[in-house]
Amino acid sequence: MKQQLRGASAILAAAGLALAMSGCAGAHPLNASAAKSTTHTHPHTSAPTAVATATPTPTPTATHKSSGKSTHHSTPVKVVTPTKPKAPSKPKPKPKPPTVVHYSDGSYTENGTYNSPGGSETISVTLTLGNDLVTAVSVSTVSADATARGYEAMFAGGISGAAVGHNIGTLHVGAVAGSSLTSIGFNQAVGKIRADAKE
After folding, report:
1. In the chain, fewer beta carbons within 10 Å around the N or the C end?
2. What percent of the chain stands above pLDDT 70?
3. Does some domain include residue 154?
C-alpha cells in the first residue's frame, strides 16, 4: 500500500513538473508578443528624451482706470501767426538832371521898366551872347526924370562887371553902383532877351 502511494506521489510530482515547465515555455512568447503590441520602439533608435520647455513669464501690463478725465498732459503748442511780408520799398526816383538850355549867339536888345519916386521909368538893355555867356552889355535911358537919370548913369557905369562872363540863363543882378531900382528894370529886360535867344 505504501508503495502504491509513493508511486502516485511520484507521478503527481512528475506531472506538476511537466506542467510547470510547459507554463514557463509558453510564458515567454506570450510576454514577447504583448511587449510588441504595447511598445512601438525601433530596435535602432534611442528612447525619446524629455525636453524641458521654458514657459514665458507674462509681463504685467499697467491697467488704466477710465475716470472720464484725460490723464495725459500735452505740451502747449505755440501758435505762430504768419506775418505779412513787407512790401518792397519803392526805389526813390533819381533826380532828373537839370535841363540844359542853350541860347543863340548874337546881340539882343529889350526894354525894362521900374517905378521910382518920380514915377515909372524905362531903360534899354543890349546884351551880346556867345556860347550862352554874356560877352558885352550896355544900358541907356529911355524915359526918366532928372533924379532917375542920375541913378541910371551910375548903374550903366558898373553893370559890365556884374554881367559880363555870366551865363544868360542864370544872370540876375542886385544893386549896382548904389542904384537898386534900376536893377529891377535891367532884370526884366534880361528875362525878355533870354526868351528871345533861347534855341
Report:
1. N
2. 62
3. yes
Domain that holds residue 140: 106-197
For residue range 75-89, what is the model confidence (pLDDT) as tens digits? 777 777 777 777 777
pTM of the predicted protein model: 0.52
pLDDT per position as a tens digit, 30-40: 444 433 444 44
At 13, list the grid cell.
510530482
Distance CA 160, CA 180 (A): 16
Total number of domains in the chain: 1
pLDDT tens-place string over residues 134-184: 999 999 999 889 999 999 999 999 999 999 999 999 999 999 999 999 999
